[in-house]
């Protein structure tokens, strides 16, 4: 079966390098914003998944409701109120989206930029609609609103492509516990794991990260970062944590907890092990004495 024209256009958008210079400048600008701990808040680390999809429900719902009221005579005032609510709530939703976008890989950023442009167009059209409503030009205001809703639909289509086809914001380590069989798995001798060094091993063809601490505890985590699948074995270990080399997410070795984003999900891991014991608990691999 032939690929649809729409998918062909989206695939071409992923491969189009024309706007890469703009993407680089915009990414640096977003990453330089002095957000502090608010950056993890906007990523949704507290929620366990990206918060942007949750936040966009307010402007989309407000604007869709305004469109319904615009179809009824004498409801322009109420529709205008909903347009204003949508505009106000679009600001934090857009900020969360930009913060997430700055951490994506290039193909995702290309689609994400088009997604942001469509939504920005919608915001501009709804702002024009609200202005016309204030001036009493209700027919023109309704026209701008319906055009804005069309732009929102385009933005939603691109957002769906980002989420479901390109796996933007997905937990790339979620499947690991389901792929590793239950029980003990030999992965090497204690001497094979230098203290505080990141060592990559495989269990059931699933890459894992093994770290032996100074006190003798041995930790095993999924080697691919939950977001966006960065190689943790190439990262840094410090203060009982490992930092992803791609975007700086920090995970605690003892339990895989995501101490710092942009990762919103923890790493699947085993419990701490000692060098005198064979195997790890649950689904994970452990070391054994030679």
What's the arrangement of secondary structure elements?
Blueprint: H1 5-15, H2 20-31, H3 38-43, H4 52-55, H5 57-70, H6 76-101, H7 106-134, H8 138-165, H9 176-179, E1 186-189, E2 199-203, E3 206-212, E4 218-222, E5 236-238, E6 241-243, E7 250-252, E8 258-260, E9 286-288
Parallel strand pairs: 1-9
Antiparallel strand pairs: 2-3, 3-4, 5-6, 6-7, 7-8
Your description of this structure?
The protein has 290 residues and is an alpha+beta fold. The chain folds into two domains: 5-165; 176-288, Rieske Iron-sulfur Protein, CATH 2.102.10.10. Helix content is 46%, strand content 12%. The protein contains nine helices and nine strands. It has helices spanning 5-15, 20-31, 38-43, 52-55, 57-70, 76-101, 106-134, 138-165, 176-179; strands at 186-189, 199-203, 206-212, 218-222, 236-238, 241-243, 250-252, 258-260, 286-288. A four-stranded antiparallel β-sheet has the order 5-6-7-8, with no helix packed on it. It has a three-stranded antiparallel β-sheet with strand order 2-3-4, with no helix packed on it. Strand 7 and strand 8 form a beta hairpin. Helix 1 crosses helix 7 and helix 6 runs antiparallel to helix 7 (106-134). The radius of gyration is 24 Å and the shape is elongated. It starts with a helix and ends with a strand. The relative contact order is 0.11.
């Amino acid at each position: 079966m032939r690929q649809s024209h729409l998918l062909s256009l989206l695939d071409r958008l992923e491969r189009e390098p024309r706007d890469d210079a703009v993407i680089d400048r915009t990414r640096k600008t977003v990453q330089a914003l002095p957000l502090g701990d608010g950056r993890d808040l906007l990523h949704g680390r507290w929620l366990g998944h990206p918060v942007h999809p949750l936040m966009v429900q307010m402007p989309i719902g407000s604007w869709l409701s305004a469109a319904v009221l615009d179809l009824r005579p004498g409801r322009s005032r109420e529709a205008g109120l909903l347009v204003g609510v949508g505009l106000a709530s679009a600001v934090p939703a857009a900020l969360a989206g930009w913060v997430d976008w700055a951490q994506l890989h290039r193909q995702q950023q290309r689609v994400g930029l088009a997604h942001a442009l469509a939504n920005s167009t919608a915001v501009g059209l709804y702002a024009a609609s609200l202005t016309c409503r204030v001036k009493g030009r209700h027919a023109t205001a309704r026209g701008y609103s319906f055009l804005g809703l069309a732009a929102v639909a385009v933005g939603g289509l691109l957002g769906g492509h980002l989420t479901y086809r390109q796996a933007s914001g997905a937990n790339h380590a979620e499947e690991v516990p389901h792929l590793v069989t239950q029980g003990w798995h030999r992965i090497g001798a204690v001497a094979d794991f230098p203290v505080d060094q990141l060592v990559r091993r495989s269990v059931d063809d699933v890459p894992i990260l093994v770290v032996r601490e100074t006190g003798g505890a041995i930790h095993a985590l999924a080697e691919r970062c939950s977001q966006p699948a960065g190689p943790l074995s190439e990262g840094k270990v410090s203060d009982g944590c490992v930092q992803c080399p791609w975007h700086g997410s920090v995970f605690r070795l003892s339990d895989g907890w995501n101490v710092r984003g942009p990762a919103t999900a923890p790493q699947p891991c085993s419990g701490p092990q000692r060098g005198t014991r064979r195997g790890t608990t649950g689904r994970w691999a452990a070391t054994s004495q030679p």
